[in-house]
Design brief:
Layout lengths: L2 H9 L4 E6 L1 H6 L1 H11 L4 E6 L2 H9 L5 E5 L9 E9 L1 E6 L18 E3 L6 H11 L8 E3 L3 H9 L5 E4 L1 H4 L10 E7 L3 E8 L6 H19 L1
Parallel strand pairs: 1-2, 1-3, 6-7
Antiparallel strand pairs: 3-10, 4-10, 5-8, 5-9
Helix pairs in contact: 3-8
Length: 225
């Protein structure tokens, strides 16, 4: 193939973006972000990977994603990754509607129940377990390590297990967790940081930069609503 033919073939190849998003992002702002991006860059193809950080971060480290929008603790982000914070988001303890401990006012009252966490280095779950220990409390004796939001919801709705979910799951009409049989407990938890994560030494394309900026705009707008 001649250089001219090769250039034409390459020019005809649509740009592709591979992006990872956590369930909180996928369920709240993803559709608005992608609709906006599509108007600006109609020719770009998207490969979307939805999952908790334990799923999307390894893919990012392998070079399979351009960037990911995740919850992360900046102190635990691997040295090979760059993390740009976007918003702080609140979390709440969640159980099924009618849970026998739904009126609990102290964390200690809930620790004998079985809990669902997503455990991996730097995760919000690990931060909460440390936070529990810092208060002089023993962690829950029974923990299910679950990396699926769908499985998490099903277990919570149909048992007395407990978990933690972002407050936006109850605030965003598109999610409406309460209508799915979940209820919030009135115990304050530490906030989490949502941000954009990418490989440090892999400069993003203009399309990737634009899409990441749109995620930031819509997440901040949601946080201020």
């Amino acid at each position: 193939m001649s250089f001219t033919m090769l250039a034409v073939a390459e020019a005809g190849t649509p740009e592709r973006l591979a992006v990872g998003v956590t369930p909180m992002v996928a369920l709240s702002v993803l559709s608005d972000v992608w609709t906006h991006f599509r108007r600006l860059r109609p020719a770009v193809a998207l490969n979307l990977r939805e999952g908790l950080p334990s799923i999307v971060v390894p893919a990012l480290l392998k070079g399979e994603l351009d960037f990911a929008v995740v919850m992360a603790d900046p102190g635990f982000v691997p040295d090979t990754l760059a993390f740009e914070p976007i918003i702080h988001t609140s979390f709440q303890i969640v159980g099924r509607a009618g849970h026998p401990a739904r009126h609990a006012t102290e964390l200690a009252q809930l620790l004998d129940y079985e809990w669902i966490f997503s455990l991996h280095p730097g995760s919000y779950s690990e931060r909460i377990l440390k936070w529990i220990a810092d208060q002089g409390l023993a962690p829950p004796q029974h923990i299910v390590d679950c990396n699926s939001t769908l499985s998490n919801w099903q277990l919570i709705r149909n048992s007395d297990m407990l978990t933690m979910l972002p407050s936006v799951f109850f605030q965003a009409p598109s999610i409406a967790a309460e209508s799915h049989g979940l209820t919030r407990f009135g115990i304050r938890l530490p906030e989490a940081i949502v941000g954009s994560l990418r490989l440090k030494h892999a400069p993003p394309s203009s399309a990737a930069t634009l899409l990441a900026d749109l995620f930031a705009v819509y997440l901040r707008r949601q946080g201020n609503s």
